[in-house]
Amino acid sequence: MNLLDGKKCADSLIAGIAKQVARHVDFGLRKPHMTVVLVGNHAPSESYVKSKVTTCTLSGFESNLIRLPETVTEKELLWLIQQINADASTDGVIVQLPLPKQINAQRVINAIAPEKDIDGFHPTNFGRMALGQKAFRPATAYGICKLLQFYQVPVAGKHCVVIGRSNIVGKPISIMLSNDFDIGNATVTLTHIETPRELLLDETRRADIVIVAVGIPGFVTPDMVKDGVTLIDVGINRLENGKLVGDVDFAAVAPKCEWITPVPGGVGRMTVAALMINTLMAYQNNFELA
Ligand code: NAD
């Protein structure tokens, strides 16, 4: 069993980004700038946002965090997005999800200028990504690709099963790994809550790579995978005892795996690193440096 160490990979990517930024700054340009919008006091969101802001500093970026109250209206949030879109001093913006019930998240995502959409959730970027064109790729899915690439895990020609079809993880990773990208060319099966259990097991038991993003602790058990599988655990679940776990019964499944991601220290770190790659790309696009 080998660990796909997201921290090690992310640290290496961020060091490379910081070097590129230093070169641009030496050349007389301003630093890349990320704007983060946080609505309310959702505890996990607070921690994700903190990690993004800290990683901006490590990457040589500037950042600002805009906090809005839980009671903010959709209209007010959309107005703020318009201001950020028009602000030439910021290269990328993220609106931390989830948003309170009175706000339609998709309408907010759609309002972000595609050239500042470093999360890669805007229909323009998602569509371009699906078509294999240059785009900001959804950060968690992109982070998974970068992790597989870093450890030179074979993907092309492999059978990959994705469990979960969310717009932010399952759907984009299934498209990206099946695309003819730098990391891709796999044969991908996308499964979800309506997939009959027997069919799910048929698929996962013969998969070379299983990617799980369901949000259920211990969902993947040893009987579901074959020996030598590569297992990517996207889940982040907080147990009652405070412990953070993924969607895989790690202790039981890890001995069967060729490669496996830990939680924490796996995909979560890579999501933030991928956001930094996207922000650098937005900045380089602005200055036509790409
Ligand atoms: P979601 O929570 O929006 O949806 C869950 C998905 O799981 C759905 O598509 C559903 O069809 C599928 N599902 C549920 N039960 C299933 C079953 N029995 N069989 C097959 N499929 C089933 O998905 P999400 O937003 O991708 O989040 C999933 C998990 O990933 C959560 O724990 C979340 O916190 C975590 N997450 C982690 C990161 C990261 O950076 N590591 C990023 C995003 C989400």
TrEMBL record:
GO CC entries: cytosol
GO biological process: L-histidine biosynthetic process; methionine biosynthetic process; purine nucleotide biosynthetic process; tetrahydrofolate interconversion
Pathway: One-carbon metabolism; tetrahydrofolate interconversion
Annotated residues for binding of NADP(+): 164-166, 193, 236
Tetrahydrofolate dehydrogenase/cyclohydrolase catalytic domain location: 4-119
A Pfam family recorded for this sequence: THF_DHG_CYH
GO molecular function: methenyltetrahydrofolate cyclohydrolase activity; methylenetetrahydrofolate dehydrogenase (NADP+) activity
Annotated ranges, domain Tetrahydrofolate dehydrogenase/cyclohydrolase NAD(P)-binding: 138-285
Keywords from the UniProt entry: Amino-acid biosynthesis, Histidine biosynthesis, Hydrolase, Methionine biosynthesis, Multifunctional enzyme, NADP, One-carbon metabolism, Oxidoreductase, Purine biosynthesis
UniProt cross-references to InterPro entries, sorted A to Z: Aminoacid_DH-like_N_sf, NAD(P)-bd_dom_sf, THF_DH/CycHdrlase, THF_DH/CycHdrlase_cat_dom, THF_DH/CycHdrlase_CS, THF_DH/CycHdrlase_NAD-bd_dom
Catalytic activity, as annotated: (6R)-5,10-methenyltetrahydrofolate + H2O = (6R)-10-formyltetrahydrofolate + H(+); (6R)-5,10-methylene-5,6,7,8-tetrahydrofolate + NADP(+) = (6R)-5,10-methenyltetrahydrofolate + NADPH
Alphabetical list of PROSITE patterns matching this protein: THF_DHG_CYH_1
E.C. number(s) listed in UniProt: 1.5.1.5, 3.5.4.9
Keyword Oxidoreductase (UniProt): yes
Family: Belongs to the tetrahydrofolate dehydrogenase/cyclohydrolase family.
Oligomer status and interactors: Homodimer.
Function (record text): Catalyzes the oxidation of 5,10-methylenetetrahydrofolate to 5,10-methenyltetrahydrofolate and then the hydrolysis of 5,10-methenyltetrahydrofolate to 10-formyltetrahydrofolate.
HAMAP family for the chain: THF_DHG_CYH
Official protein name in the record: Bifunctional protein FolD
Gene name per UniProt: folD-1
